[in-house]
């Protein structure tokens, strides 16, 4: 199905992009890679008379590292992130995730910011970025604000981004020495039916973990009850320690069946992916992990 006609705007600055959204309001949408938006418009799921193309905003592209965080421009493509030397050295698990998103066309054209703002429930980045403790910087006419990744997606194709705001940066705290991260997913048609991200976070007084499951509902879900049970467990013992609790942890998850599987099937997959991700943590070399 062909796209319906629309006006294509190509601002050269963030202020110009924000002004265009002010002018056109509900008849406009920001457009980055377009791998999700254009498909939805072709299918007549979405309709906009104006697309505001952000591709010329080079200030929203690239990766920088500070002493405390890695800052990712929202217009960075998945392919660029997979090969970026900063991402590969500080967040190698995320680099690997980026290298396996969908297909080469989507990786080359699709942007991380566009992926997060579209909020398709079966997407890889939100689950991993939640486990990494990422936050997002949004810019609107009224100013800027930061919001935690795990709070950003509020429902299926719905986020906390206001219509006039642009997602500018994804900020990921630099993992502490000895941290370990793992990501596992099982998918159909280039999208995960279920994904699990596990992070081991060394603390001065104890060992702690972050665990998120994705694609079970419209938003990534934190397995906080399970992480409480694992508090103090050495990462080399994680596989044995988590096994007795997997069935209870995934059984308690609110899960919605969809075209990629029933609720029971997805809970089963979540358990399998959880065990595998924990095994990856056990076998990981901390100095090579994000």
List the helices and strands and how they pair.
Layout: E1 7-9, H1 14-24, E2 28-31, H2 37-42, E3 50-53, E4 63-65, E5 69-73, H3 78-83, H4 85-90, H5 92-98, H6 104-109, H7 112-118, H8 125-131, E6 135-140, E7 143-148, H9 149-152, E8 153-155, E9 158-159, E10 166-173, E11 180-188, E12 191-202, E13 207-214, E14 221-222, H10 224-230, H11 238-242, H12 246-251, H13 263-283
Q: Your description of this structure?
A:
It is built from 13 helices and 14 strands. It has helices at 14-24, 37-42, 78-83, 85-90, 92-98, 104-109, 112-118, 125-131, 149-152, 224-230, 238-242, 246-251, 263-283, and strands at residues 7-9, 28-31, 50-53, 63-65, 69-73, 135-140, 143-148, 153-155, 158-159, 166-173, 180-188, 191-202, 207-214, 221-222. The strands form four sheets. A five-stranded antiparallel β-sheet has the order 4-5-10-6-7. Strands 11-12-13-14 form a four-stranded antiparallel β-sheet, with helices on both faces. Strands 1-3-2 form a three-stranded parallel β-sheet, covered by helices on one side. Helix 2 (37-42) links the parallel strand 2 and strand 3 (50-53). The N and C termini lie far apart (42 Å).
């Amino acid at each position: 199905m062909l796209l319906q006609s629309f006006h294509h705007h190509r601002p050269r600055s963030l202020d110009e992009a924000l002004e265009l959204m002010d002018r056109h309001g509900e008849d406009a949408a920001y457009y980055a890679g377009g791998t999700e938006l254009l498909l939805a418009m072709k299918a007549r799921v979405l309709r906009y008379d104006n697309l505001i193309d952000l591709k010329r905003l080079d200030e929203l592209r690239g990766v920088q590292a500070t002493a405390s965080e890695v800052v990712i421009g929202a217009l960075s493509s998945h392919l660029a992130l997979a090969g970026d030397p900063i991402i590969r050295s500080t967040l190698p698990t995320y680099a690997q995730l980026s290298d396996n998103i969908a297909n080469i066309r989507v990786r080359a054209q699709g942007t991380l910011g566009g992926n997060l703002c579209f909020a398709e429930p079966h997407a890889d980045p939100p689950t991993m970025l939640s486990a990494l403790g990422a936050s997002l910087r949004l810019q609107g006419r009224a100013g800027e604000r930061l919001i935690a990744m795990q709070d950003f997606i509020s429902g299926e194709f719905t986020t906390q981004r206001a219509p006039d705001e642009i997602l500018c940066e994804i900020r990921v705290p630099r993992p502490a020495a000895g941290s370990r991260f793992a990501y596992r997913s099982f998918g159909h048609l280039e999208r995960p039916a279920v994904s699990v991200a596990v992070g081991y976070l060394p603390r001065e007084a104890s060992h702690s973990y972050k665990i998120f499951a994705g694609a079970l509902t419209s938003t990534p879900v934190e397995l906080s009850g399970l992480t409480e049970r694992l508090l103090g467990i050495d990462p080399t013992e994680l596989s044995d320690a988590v096994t007795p609790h997997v069935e209870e942890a995934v059984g308690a998850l609110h899960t919605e069946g969809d075209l990629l599987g029933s609720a029971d099937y997805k809970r089963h997959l979540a358990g399998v992916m959880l065990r595998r991700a924990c095994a990856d943590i056990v076998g990981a070399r901390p100095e090579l992990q994000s």
